[in-house]
Design brief:
The protein has 15 helices and no strands. It is mostly helical. The chain has two domains: 2-80, no CATH class; 99-322, Orthogonal Bundle (MetI-like fold), CATH 1.10.3720.
Length: 328
Amino acid sequence: MRKYIIKRLFLAVIIFFFVMLIIYTLMRCLPTSYIEAMARQKSLQPNSKSFEEWMAQLNEMYGMDRGIIAGYFHWLGDFFRGSFGDSWYYTVPVIEKFNDTVWLSFWMGLITMFFELVIAIPLGIIAATKQYTKTDYTISVLAIAFISLPTFFFIALLKLLFSVKLGWFDLFGLVGRNYEQLNAWGQFLDKCHHLVLPILTLIVISIGGLMRYTRTNMLEVLNADYIRTARAKGLDEHKVIYKHAFRNTLIPLVTIVGGSLPGLFSGALFTETMFSIPGIGYTSYHAMVAGDIPFSMFYLAFLAILTLVGNLIADILYAVVDPRVRIA
């Protein structure tokens, strides 16, 4: 296992190098740029230099006058030294802005994952054990409906029902109008109240796929020979399902859970933007639209590392739940 982990880490470094090279190249080729907007704004001031002169000066200042390969190695060196620079759009250090926004998205993602696992996996097991019954059909229809439901459409329905018609929640924002007048506990509850609809959106649009995935894998396991043997020996049906069948269903499920690690920190761009929740998805979206290369590169590099780590964790967990992998 140690040799396997070392090998995977070595491959992860190589993959990270080429992935970030592709991302850096794409970022440099974006049609919009914060430097261009800044140069255009400065060139319009009275007695100012021309747009081209400002572009040359700002490109030199931010190191954009280098070629793509030279600029990438310069960025890579700064990244591994922990020098992430300042955000062009937010005008604060990149790591400071990232730290201010990522934890809100993290807690939203963590709560969503908890309810996703608690709801989707049991429903998938129930659907598999009651195959071709009304229960199975109902769960399958709900799962397909949740998978097919567009995020923006579902958010619009939630806002129409709970915000416009019932008036239970605000349409936008993380805090209410009287937030500053509340004590610490009241401010915490106010934020929780504003996060109900965004988290509900994330739960609904995410459980459908896991429900179907669990049902399919559970059906495959329930039709295996050793399950029929266990039933023929007279074992209790509850023990057959949850001790023998479900344990083998965990093998592909841990891959899903391990691969979802980046989702805890990546934020939900559509949901955060439509609810104006200042999480990392909302923040990175505005940074990319503005051509904020330092912040966007750090955010995408962070996600690339998390994806590689998540895949490694999934492989290790795969070996934990399946002895055959450890032997191999």
